[in-house]
Every structure is written in C-alpha cells, then in structure tokens.
Amino acid sequence: MSTEPVMHTPAAMKALASPLRREILRHLANHGPATSTTLARAMGQNTGTTSYHLRMLSDTGFVTELRERAKGRERWWDVVKADRRTPARESLTDADQDLAERLGDSKLAEDLRLLSAFARNRDEESDWQQSSRAGTFMTKAQLKEFHEEYLKLVHRFSVDRDAAPADARMVLLRWVGFPDPRGS
C-alpha cells in the first residue's frame, strides 16, 4: 500500500456512491481476487452488472486486473490498497461538496447497518468488538494531528490479507472526529 495519501477525485467519489461497488471492494479486500462471475454469485447479481461495476472501479483506480491469472475471457480483479481520503471541503466545487456529503451519509448508514448486524450476533462474538466514546477539547490543528496519528496506528497494526494469521478476520475501523454541533 502506498504511504502517500490519495485524494478522491470527483470521479472516485461517484464510483463510491454505489453501495454495490463498495460491497465489491469489501468482498475483494476480505476474500481476495475474484472474477465478475464469482462476485455475481456472492452478491446475488448477474455477471453483466458486476463486470460493469468492476470497470468503473478500475477506471477510478480502486481495483486492478490481474492479467497473469486470466484464462481465455476470464478476468481476475483485486482491490488496490491505498490511503484514500476525501479532499478538504474548501478545495471542492459546490457540486462536489454535495456529492461528498451524500457519499458520507450513505457510507455512515451502511456502517450503522453493519454494526447493527454484528450487534445482533454479539453473544457469539462479543470479544471481537472493541469501542470507545470520548469527548475532549481540541483545536482544528490538534484534530488534524490526532487524525494523522490514528492513521499511523492503523498502518502499524495492518496486515496484508495474504499474510494474515489463519484466525484473523477483516475488522472494520471507523474513526470520526467533529465539533459538537450543540455547542460552540
């Protein structure tokens, strides 16, 4: 994975706006390379649909074709690992700010659905969930520094899918920091 942050372009944000594309990315990250056929089967879609979405993800740099695995017309795809970030709000046009906001809302709703699904099975896997909730006073500069330190911590503990121990699972990490909208 590249250590330099990659800022999302408007095209990348549009690509991520599709929940199915995000599901494809999550599947590839979790299970490894796949074809449009295996993805279609796993997601209850047809191969035309998954092929289309894979091309969109490829065009925006989220997936890459593994040409060495190709056999005949069969194409294999894998996720491209990178430190991807949404650009600063002030660098986006009004339309792109709206797109980033809608994408953020959609991703948050998806994250809440995933957490809720996990919570329903908590009795079986309660020790897999670790969480914390805190509030503190920071300046904008301190919050940005905290965010960078968080990313360093994520990178320190990250293991490539193929090098992960047999009992490792994909763990979804979500960190967000924002000023309390109820106060100044």
Automatic annotation (TrEMBL):
* Record's keyword annotation contains NADP: no
Does the keyword field hold DNA-binding?
yes
- Keyword terms: DNA-binding, Transcription, Transcription regulation
Fetch the Pfam families from UniProt.
HTH_20
HTH arsR-type domain: from which residue to which, for each copy? 1-96
Among PANTHER family, the record links this protein to:
TRANSCRIPTIONAL REGULATOR, ARSR FAMILY, TRANSCRIPTIONAL REPRESSOR SDPR
Q: What is this protein called?
A: DNA-binding transcriptional ArsR family regulator
User: What is the source species?
Assistant: Nonomuraea rubra
